[in-house]
Amino acid sequence: MVSSPSSGRTVAIFGAASDIAMAVARLCAQAGDLLVLVGRDDAALSALAADLAERGAARIAVQKADFGQVAALPGVVQAAWERFDGIDVALIAYAIQPDQPAAEQNPAAAEAALIVNFVSPALLLGEIARRCKAQGSGTIAAITSVAGDRGRKSNYIYGAAKGGLHRFLEGLRHSLHAAGVSVVDIRPGFVVTKLTAHLDRRGVLWATPDRVAKDIFEAIASGRPVLYTPWFWQPIMVAVRGLPRWVFHRTSF
Amino acid sequence: MSELWRDDYLSWGRTVRARHLVSNPTSQALAAEIVARSPSVLAYGCGRSYGDAPLNPGGRLIDCRGLDRIISFDGQTGVLTCEAGVRLADILAILCQPEADNGGWFLPVVPGTRFATVGGAIANDVHGKNQHRLGTFGRHVSALELARSDGTRWICSQNENADLFAATIGGIGLTGFILNATIQLQRVQGLAVEAEDIRFNNLDEFFSLAAESDAYWDYTAAWIDSFAKGRSLGRGIFSRARRIPGCAAWPPALQPRIALPPMPPISLIRPFTVWAFNAAYWRKSSFRSRSSNTGSYENVFFPLDAIADWNRVYGPKGFFQFQCVVPPPAARDAVADLLRLTARSVQGSFITGLKTFGDVPSPGLMSFPMRGTSLALDIPNRGPPTRRFLAQLEHVVMQAGGRIYPAKDAAMSAASLRQGYPQVGTFIEHIDPGFSSALAQRLALTSATR
Ligand SMILES: Cc1cc2nc3c(=O)[nH]c(=O)nc-3n(C[C@H](O)[C@H](O)[C@H](O)COP(=O)(O)OP(=O)(O)OC[C@H]3O[C@@H](n4cnc5c(N)ncnc54)[C@H](O)[C@@H]3O)c2cc1C
Fold first, then answer.
1. Which of B124, B127, B366 to mutate to test the pocket of ligand 1 (most atoms within 8 A of CB)?
2. What residue ranges define each of the domains in chain A, with the CATH number in brackets?
């Protein structure tokens, strides 16, 4: 309804029904972007699309995909690319939170988590990177996690996948630098979302999706390489990474 | 979907502490599913009710904030359909922006905070400073969809399932879960307002100012100095506002401008601070008895929203709000009695509001507004003496044939509810047996069919 001048960007969001992605999509809609929403849950995406249309999105396309099926990923990217003739910003926002103790006992659960949290986004990023390189522009952003900064007993399967993604994005950034494509690694801390609904979420470190989305939106606009959000995670993670191993091993988190 | 026992769901007055099994559905279908499989359930909007209406100790709460999608909006007719967890602030930010002629669409009725959800606004049938003109929020709801604990979903309007519609508007969340609603927005020629503040020296001056202003001004309400006694009893500042055609105003930012630090260990509201605030506020305009300004509606409609979590200044014990309405013949004397009791109580009231209601009928069986004068008091919780004081206030209101507002209340008796709301019997027939709340238990509001 609100007629804002279209910024003309085409933004594709993979995992668009996640809480953080949804909040970012709303900011993009307000800016008058064209949106390609890719995800698993059709009904959720359609409801989101109607909402985004009222918030000012110039055009919206909804596309169904199962990110666990890695063989299908090239087709997913191809289809998203063709919706509005190219993509200026790609945001990868899907993840699953495995139950660490259960996954230690059950290799199938560990495998599923590693595939959805690392193999799948890495392959998807590769597909997107190829296209961006060819067109000589674009911003590629992926939501990783502060959990990828150091392996901890409470969630190292998830952390390893996210940490792997940190390295992958780092390499991609190196490789795309000359082509003028920016690569943004977004590392949120604790966010109140569906993914964390099973945790006790009191305390000052918890942030809302809206707060995190604002940071992401700005980091994408500026092409900032690594974003900790909210900001206070940056000094916290410097400290956590710097803890000597003998101290770290005594902590229980 | 996961559910979690939590003890951090409070209402605005923070007087009730309890554990709730909380779920956060992100779609209407999921919400309806939870309603259908739960023995004791209640919807929680933004917790902007002061009392115990949004709480269900030991039972389930469905947090509505994941249901915040706009479903459709027609820019020609102003008809909005949205999920029940959309906040009024979101509607203002998205849909109520100035158009080319600086006019635009506006919410016809807003309460004193924009951080309330559409579901909460319907369930309490909230009113604003323009009650004398446009009535309550529910009058502008053309339809809503309700999920009941027997697994059914109902579309309700004046024409379809009209009984359930009337019971749900002002139904304090007990008739089922509101999934979505269709609201008719109001076309205004200017989103900005001109506002005037006028000092008055006693209650009689309030009544004549109100009578004069209600005819020409869309929005009226007054602040009262709760410590003034004797000939100054009921002195205060009368605020009135109206739209300025052709003048634009942008919606306020979605975040409050000032944030308070976490909970202070003691209440900052002491008799002395309350007295000092009231005295200072009264003197604010002592050099001029009348002041006016024009521009954004934010300060006029939502003055308290500027500070996030201002309710925390009352400390860990919280506070009560007491809002009543007293019908005309007895109104003047009853309000005077209530103010005398307050001035004498040492407790004082931090923010005291007075407003005349018109006779625009409310569509709900249990809607609060009726023709008369409405007084709202904020009272720090000091335990039993505060309860006794509230009971005295309640007694005065009942003697005068008035009623107390459930959205603001945490203390009135079941007898007072029955006396104030003659249609309560019919309402009870529509209560969903799967729904419960702290308020429902206190006021013996349970389904007739249980
Ligand atoms: C600063 C301030 C100023 C205020 N000024 C006014 C005023 O001027 N006029 C006025 O009338 N009120 C006023 N209020 C009260 C407030 O407008 C109401 O209490 C409103 O209902 C709060 O909405 P909420 O979304 O926070 O709902 P909550 O307080 O969370 O819940 C209120 C009720 O609505 C029910 N409910 C919520 N969502 C649903 C749903 N989806 N389906 C079914 N039931 C539901 C709950 O069960 C509960 O019974 C004010 C409150 C504050 C804090």
1. B124
2. 10-249 (3.40.50.720)
